[in-house]
Amino acid sequence: MAARQGAQESNHAGRLYSIKEASELTDVPTHTLRFWERKIPEFLQPVRTSGRQRRYAEDCLERIRQLDYYVNHKGMTLVGAQRMIQEGVEPERTAKQELLTKILADKRVRQAVDEIVELIRRRILEEY
Known about the structure:
Blueprint lengths: L1 H10 L7 H8 L3 H10 L7 E2 L5 E2 L2 H16 L4 H9 L4 H37 L1
Antiparallel strand pairs: 1-2
């Protein structure tokens, strides 16, 4: 088993980060990283050293950042956040879409209010 874990570690290109480093780089507490790993093990799989220590690759750090965005900033469940990431929804794109929707809704409301004001103005003018 240790040989397999050692091979797993050597198969990763690039730097691997300890759980403490991953926590500092992503602003996600270490206990949260461990919890997420238990809840969605197929999605968040840090490499294990022969001593069973976790090592996080860059792609894993990116998934952690995305999970943090959806769970802690958007209020989604962990599984919902995982689904969004797997579907390839970009967090910035989602935020832009939300902003655009709000702007369009605001324009529609303004337009509706303007139409109502115009109707009232016409009725008032008709009466005089």
